[in-house]
Amino acid sequence: MASVALDLVTHDDAQPASTAVHLEDRTTLSYGELAELVGESERALRHDGKALVLCAGDRDLPTLVAYLAALRLGHAVAFLPAAAEIISAYQPEFVVPAPGQGTGLADPGYRPAAEPVAGITIFRRNSRPAGEIFPDTALLLTTSGSTGSPKTVRLSCSGLAGNTAAVIRALGITAAERAPTTLPITHVYGLSVLNTHLLAGAGVVLGDRPPLSLATWDHLIRSGATSFAAVPMTYAAFGPAHAGLLGRSKIRTMTQSGARLDDDLTMRLVRMMNQRDGRFFVMYGQTEATSRIARLDPADLPRRLGSVGTAIPGGTITIRPAPVHARAVPGEGAVCYRGPGVMLGYATGRADLCRGAEVDVLDTGDLGYLREGYLYLTGRTKRIVKVLGVRTSLDDLERMVERPGHPAAVICGAGEVVHLVGAGEVAVHEQQRRELVELLGVPSRHVVFRHVDRLPLTAGGKVDYRRLATVTDSRERPGPWS
């Protein structure tokens, strides 16, 4: 079976004279000019068989060019750091370092493959080829739960193409759009923004500064960006100054994914975009599904407030039985997804890359229920615990005691003790702690409050419960986290 390729640069919707990339130095690249750079990168990435290309950069032109070239050649791309542990585990044939890096690659056996392309040197492995790669493999991406380890999700080229096309249909993306890279392309949400707009023949506003920085908004306004993608923690910090900058922009579409977005904030953003004759999309996705699973049509708000919407075109969401907890909603169960983009499987090293598809229906690990085809998420299956014999959802408890401006997380420690970890005013969190005692119906000593400077977050903007678990393992004050 021949390697499967994906062309995001020279397809029918990519007009050579149309602007493909807006750079921060105020220069632009047309699709024709981008194709020339991709062609140069392809020559440096030529290989006898399917190769693994490790891209260590993020939202910079060399990384973009190498990524597009690798996909067009039918190679697999790993968005991973060029760390010794990763290189040893996956043995990539090529390494594309982040700009300004690349030293130390000679030790594991790499040499420059050609002259620099787009200002960066691509390195080729000197030793004999490593293990075979399944022909349809396109991407290796980390999940929020595998930070700090070489575990990745194996995504297929056919799934990438199918999910990208489905999201284009779901959001109505056209060649007239210009989308900024306000999210890392090393993770599925940010990468989906890039892929969908290139496949639609639209423009990409390339930059890697924080999404709410003045420099970012200056770039968005100058380039004529028409959309904005962000996670909830970004929208929570979207203040009057940003609303003023939005008013000077051409942005008419905003999308959200990652963690749950507060209902009041959702409606504030909806009203803000309605005033601009624009749209605000609540979305839901996972790395294991390549990107998007569901999206909520703005026309369904506020009637469907709290829902993440319906499945993207070609997808099906079902609910399977799951362990019942004290406050389970009727019809609640494990959220499962079948459709474009379901992963091939996981990998922890090169030996896993020869395997084909191992997943048909994806168990997302989320709990939720369906109402007239609309999905409502209620928590994570692994966040169902027993406290003094009563099974309860920690996510449920968080929602029931949440306070605006006082970020808090609920986790379970040893001895059936529930920990409330908060980064706001101590008095407010103490009130939350007392509410948790009442909700759980347990003695006060079974709910403990710990204060942190800030809650640790994953790249997707969700609370990093794995890192937060250190709170329960030590009497020392945790944090701060960045």
Topology:
Elements: E1 19-22, E2 28-30, H1 31-44, E3 52-55, H2 61-73, E4 76-79, H3 84-90, E5 94-96, E6 110-112, E7 123-125, E8 137-141, E9 152-156, H4 157-171, E10 178-180, H5 188-199, E11 203-205, H6 214-223, E12 227-230, H7 232-236, H8 240-247, E13 253-256, H9 263-274, E14 279-285, E15 292-296, E16 310-311, E17 316-320, E18 333-338, E19 345-347, E20 362-371, E21 374-380, E22 384-387, E23 390-393, H10 394-401, E24 408-412, E25 418-422, H11 426-440, E26 447-451, H12 465-468, H13 470-473
Helix pairs in contact: 1-2, 4-5
Would you give an account of this structure?
The protein has 482 residues and is an alpha/beta fold. The protein folds into two domains: 19-375, Rossmann fold (3-Layer(aba) Sandwich), CATH 3.40.50; 388-473, 2-Layer Sandwich (GMP Synthetase, Chain A, domain 3). Helices cover 26% and strands 24% of the residues. The chain contains 13 helices and 26 strands. It has helices at residues 31-44, 61-73, 84-90, 157-171, 188-199, 214-223, 232-236, 240-247, 263-274, 394-401, 426-440, 465-468, 470-473; strands at residues 19-22, 28-30, 52-55, 76-79, 94-96, 110-112, 123-125, 137-141, 152-156, 178-180, 203-205, 227-230, 253-256, 279-285, 292-296, 310-311, 316-320, 333-338, 345-347, 362-371, 374-380, 384-387, 390-393, 408-412, 418-422, 447-451. An eight-stranded mixed sheet has the order 6-7-5-3-4-8-9-19. Strand 22 and strand 23 form a beta hairpin. Helix 1 (31-44) crosses helix 2 and helix 4 (157-171) packs across helix 5.
